[in-house]
Design brief:
Layout lengths: L1 H28 L15 E5 L3 E7 L9 E4 L4 E8 L18 E8 L4 E10 L2 E9 L1
Antiparallel strand pairs: 1-2, 2-7, 3-4, 4-5, 6-7
Length: 136
């Protein structure tokens, strides 16, 4: 009886670890091939909503602020895109581990229906923060 419970526990733990790994992989390395011919990754984002505004924070360490493009479509879809350049050290050093994605990225966030305008855009501590105002 004890061995059956141990086996069930081990399988449960293994499946849980696989689910977590898949979530992290898709969060940081999710390819957006359907939207682009070029492979893209998706940075993690937080979306907070108030009465008349939405605040979006996107983790973009190492991304030059001036290279980030923000587009708001009429249907309330916001697209944030740029490229995280490879560091020059990659040309001369041996890679032991590379977990932070590089290259072109694109993150799309669906907003509630309405018209939006970017009221504030700032980059601090590796995060892009957008404050959107909603007009009715």
């Amino acid at each position: 009886m004890r061995s059956i419970n141990r086996i069930a526990w081990m399988w449960d733990e293994a499946l849980h670890a696989l689910e977590q790994a898949e979530r992290r992989r898709s969060q940081f390395y999710g390819l957006c091939a359907a939207r682009s011919a070029q492979p893209l990754w998706e940075p993690p984002a937080d979306v907070l909503e108030g009465e008349s505004e939405i605040v979006i924070s996107v983790a973009l360490p190492g991304v030059p602020p001036e290279s980030v493009a923000v587009q708001i479509a009429a249907n309330g879809l916001i697209t944030i895109s740029a490229e995280r350049p490879l560091p020059p050290e990659l040309a001369t050093l041996r890679i032991r581990r590379l977990e932070i994605p590089y290259g072109r990225f694109e993150r799309q966030v669906e907003l509630a229906s309405g018209r939006y305008a970017v009221a504030e855009r700032r980059m601090a501590d590796g995060c892009l923060t957008l404050r959107l105002t909603r007009s009715r």
